[in-house]
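Before surveying the methods themselves, let us examine one representative protein, pairing a chain with its fold in token form.
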Amino acid sequence: MKFAHNISRIEAFSDAVFAFAATLLVVSLGVENSDSIIEVDFKSFISFAVSFFVLVMLWYLHYNFFRRTDYMDNTIIAINAVLLFVVLYYVFPLKSLINSWFMTKGMTPDKLASLFELYGIGFALIFICLSLMYFRAFKKTRHLEQAMTLLFYTRHFAIFVAVALLSIGVAYVQIGLNFGLPGIIYSLLGPFCALHSYLFFKKFKIS
């Protein structure tokens, strides 16, 4: 006998993983070595704050997926598991990247490029998972309006992946590292997503 999936259990488990990721951030707070306690606190606070609110943003995107569809199957559960796995490790490259802003020595171009690449890989994997989850739900949804919403977000998050891959490529060839070009590239998300939204709603005549 095949039982229907319990979405509330999946959401509860996902929330627990996000909470655990936040706990790991707190546990790692202030472990960097420094001659100045004030400097450690300031650097740790900034990196923790940015990483925490990025984690909250990712939780919100995940939360919205379950508000936009009630479809669930083993494929989505598997993709969701990969997403949660990546989230647990994603916050630490981000935290290290932020800490690198305060470094005056010891940060070579190769190390900085590696951080940007690691950040980009985590970013890309997270949004690949979100895009695939939306795509799977889109393929299984018969309600037209809901299907169009799911298709929109499938393509929307695919743009995030494309921009992350561009950033990884720029970091790999070490172009513009001295002024953070691999990071600046993420600002393309704004105009690219706005253009996609305009073209999508124009094509499908959705108000």
Remarks:
- The two ends are 42 Å apart (CA to CA).
